[in-house]
Structures are given as structure tokens and as C-alpha cells.
Amino acid sequence: MSDQPDRIPGFPPKMTLCVGAVVLHDDRVLFVRQTYGDSLTNTWTLPWGFAHDGDDCSQPAPPHEAALRETLEESGITAEVEGLLGIQNHTSRAGEPRLYLLFLCRHASGEPTPDGHETDKAAYLSLADLDALDERVDPFCDWLARRVLRGEHHLIPPEAANPYRPHTAFF
Description:
The chain has 171 residues and is of the alpha+beta class.
């Protein structure tokens, strides 16, 4: 193997980083209804997106910041990160690897308001609301929201006193 890995074709390996937020407000979780994508149109999901730096899609953003940005963009809700809920390996429809980082957040301010571009509805839903909903809900988002609402989750909180501060760590 070469001592110069940057000259190896396809190195470093690439994986798309996606983020999602489970935003709690009382006993309800924030959902948005998507307006695009073959498999997501008219589907209720958690706020999610790619970990990029706002308008500059070529630059990555810290995942927890990207999750908050996506939440604000898609729902009009300002949230605060409580901690990391988990990681989900996945692939795109083309089979390209994706890694989802999912954060538990608390409502800070705002009223659920769709952006009118990516989302056409936004609402906080309780377990009873999810049971009564007669529209399509993404199965993974439904499963995760129900786990959180039932208290069946673990949380890794942010650790400010880490050796790489001011970069955020979750331990």
C-alpha cells in the first residue's frame, strides 16, 4: 500500500451524511409533510436533510447544527439539541452509502409552519395523533417518534469539556 493515500483512486471513501431531529414539545413530536421525491411526496417525516453549511452545499456543517437548520427551514421551529439519539446506516436509491445522525431536540420557539417548498404541512403529533392519522407516515420516522414518546430510547448528551472544544462532542 502506498504511503500517500491521497493518490489511491477513490480515497478517501465517500459517504453522504444526513441528519434528523426528533423535536419534543410536551408529549408531542414535530413532523413535516414532504412535497418532493418519488418516495416522500405527501409523506409525514421528521425534519431531516443533508449535513451541509446552509447555502454552500459543498461545505459540511457540524451535524447537530445542520439538524437544527433543517428543523427551522422545514417547520419554522427553533429547537435546542438535547443529545444524540442514534446512528442509522442506510443507502440512497442508487445504492450509495448514507449515514444518518439523529438528534433529540426540545422546542425553543415558533409555531409549526411549512416552508411551502420542501414541506406543505408541519405539526406536533402525539401518540394518539399518530394512531389517528390517515395519511402516509415514513415507517422509520414513525418508529423512532413512537420510541421517543414512550421513553424507549437512550440519549448521548453533548460534552462541552472535550479536548477538541470548541467542537461539539457527544459522549
